[in-house]
Amino acid sequence: MSETEDKIAEAAKKFALKNAFDYGKAQVGTVLNKIFSEVPKAKEIGFPVLKGIVDKAVKEANSLSREAIESEIGKYTFPEHEQREGLPELAWAGEGTSVNTRFAPNPSGYLTIGHSKVAILCDEYSKKYPGKFFVRFEDTDPKTKEPILEAYKLIVEDLEWLGCNIAKVFKQSERLEIYYRYAQKLIESGHAYVCTCSKEEMQNNRREGIGCACRDSSIQDNLDKWEKMGTSFKEGEAVARLKTDMQHPNPSVRDWIMFRIIDKSHPLTGSRYRVWPLYNFAAAIDDHEMDINLVIRGKEHEINSVKQAYLYGALGWKQPNTIEVGIIKASKDFAHKSDIRKAISEGALSGWDDPRAPTVAGFRKRGILPMAIREYVIASGIGKNDSYLDIKKLEAINRDLQKK
Ligand SMILES: [Zn+2]
């Protein structure tokens, strides 16, 4: 065995014991991740050799009794931030459960620290319970959220830099045929209809809790109108709606809109499509199609789970487990992405990757290590309270890591 291999074997034993102690059972993926930070040279030896060493250590740790693990673990020291680390267990995830997650950004600019929180939590859970982490670009609104071509690439680069293990990248604008298929199915089963009421009428009916005449028209009539949405109806003349509950206490839940017409060219698909799904429809269909069993999102999305429950019900699907988390805001000056955009346009920042910008690219330029951002985010946990970024704390974690 080479010196590096000895070091790896020792680190593998230590982290396998710790992992078994913390979670009842050690996992190869988790231990591997730790090895890379503890023994930087691990990257230089072949993966099969590395995995062989880790496999052995994990097997040994898992064969020990709780008492034996406790006595063994006492021989090692763990840095303070190491002990803080780790997300809570998922009560619904049993032994051998794979957790599949997705991070779903708009391709509208660089990743901010706020976005990176959700991405890191998703990636972390998909590593903790080995499953897949997907990136899914939400780009089905070419009008009010016009996608920026460069952003598709930049966001993936930022995520990779943060150490996210991306299984696949999806773009919703390339999945319209899938959405259309389900829309057709929902109309055919009487769960959805095409509404040609004016915007004002729709708003009034929603407020009053009254279903419009379109709601009761025949399935064939709705199928014809659905077809016409793609061809002859003009923008604003028709929308496809899901039948939910016109008496629901929250008016926005009442027969929410699944699709609308947008006559604006899309940077990826040009003018090939004009009927675009809204967020809740596309997200729910994709979560099911991609076998996502854990959705992590900002708590401002709470009502969306309620809306999506009707779609899942209509299709006879099980809704994924959801954790709604508080947001990390960069600072009072940069609470929103639009604040950063404004600062750039006014010249206060040189760009999205200005070291003063609260973006992942800005932090990178400032010399913050990706592991420091990960640790900070994980320590901030999965609670619902919003918080401001504690830059002193992030820098302290960063200094700590640089010493290693
Ligand atoms: Zn109507």
Supply the CATH superfamily name of the domain at 177-280.
Answer: Glutamyl-tRNA Synthetase, Domain 3
Characterize the main sheet: 4 strands, antiparallel
Strand proportion, as a percent range, falls in 5-15%
The low-confidence parts are: 80-84
Task: Set out the fold topology.
Layout: H1 3-23, H2 28-38, H3 47-63, H4 66-73, H5 80-84, E1 101-103, H6 113-128, E2 133-137, H7 149-161, E3 166-171, H8 176-188, E4 192-195, H9 199-208, H10 219-230, E5 239-242, E6 257-261, E7 275-277, H11 279-289, E8 294-298, H12 302-315, E9 321-325, E10 328-329, H13 337-345, H14 360-366, H15 370-380, E11 387-388, H16 391-403
Parallel strand pairs: 1-2, 2-3, 8-9, 10-11
Antiparallel strand pairs: 4-5, 5-6, 6-7
Helix pairs in contact: 1-2, 1-3, 1-4, 6-15, 11-12, 15-16
Zinc ion is lined by residues 195-197, 212, 214.
Quick tags:
Glutamyl-tRNA Synthetase, domain 3, 404 residues, three-stranded parallel β-sheet, alpha/beta, four-stranded antiparallel β-sheet, binds zinc ion
Report on the structure:
By secondary structure, the protein is of the alpha/beta class. Among the domains are: 76 residues; 104 residues, Glutamyl-tRNA Synthetase, Domain 3 (Glutamyl-tRNA Synthetase, domain 3). Helix content is 47%, strand content 11%. It is built from 16 helices and 11 strands. A 4-stranded antiparallel sheet has the order 4-5-6-7. Strand 2, helix 7 and strand 3 form a beta-alpha-beta unit. Helix 1 packs across helix 3, helix 1 crosses helix 4 and helix 15 packs across helix 16. The longest helix has 21 residues. The chain starts with a helix and ends with a helix. About 1% of the residues have low confidence. Bound molecules: zinc ion. Zinc ion binds next to loops.
